[in-house]
Amino acid sequence: MFIVNFKLDLKKVVVISIFIAIIVATIVEFSSTPYTSVNSSIEAYDYILNDENYTSILDEVHNNIDANIGKTIKLSGFVFRMPDFKENFIVCGRNTISNNEDKVAGFLCKYDESSKLLDNEWIEITGVITKGDYNGQMPVINIGSLEKITAPANTFVTNHLEKGKTE
Length: 167
Prior knowledge:
Blueprint (H helix, E strand, L loop, with lengths): L9 H23 L14 E2 L5 H10 L1 H4 L3 E9 L8 E10 L2 E10 L11 E12 L3 E12 L19
Parallel strand pairs: 1-2, 4-6
Antiparallel strand pairs: 2-3, 2-5, 3-4, 5-6
């Protein structure tokens, strides 16, 4: 028979336990944060809309809905609603000139907290393109993040369909 007799020093056990807890907490904290979020300023989107490409990307996505499902998008615009929109739907749109008329061009968006947004309030959104239905099939952006912003100096975007047209 083999017998081991040892004496525990309670102070040393407490110090070692605290030290091990700190190490475990540090490992858990850093392992739960994905590596890509360490530098969150680098974000990749399939589409980032700006004043110059806004209507051409809008046109591309609307004309090729199925090819764009699941793609990520980032854009800014103002909140626009039609009276017949379903709950939680808005348009994130911009002003454009088409056939000498001021029109709203934008994406239909689904956002669970859309009731908290004011009409004409400027927002910057990121989301994923899906397919929806509003007077026919159309792309719908499921908003992943939304930030309220200040309206730009120029609220109009270039209509790529009007470029090169002579009057």
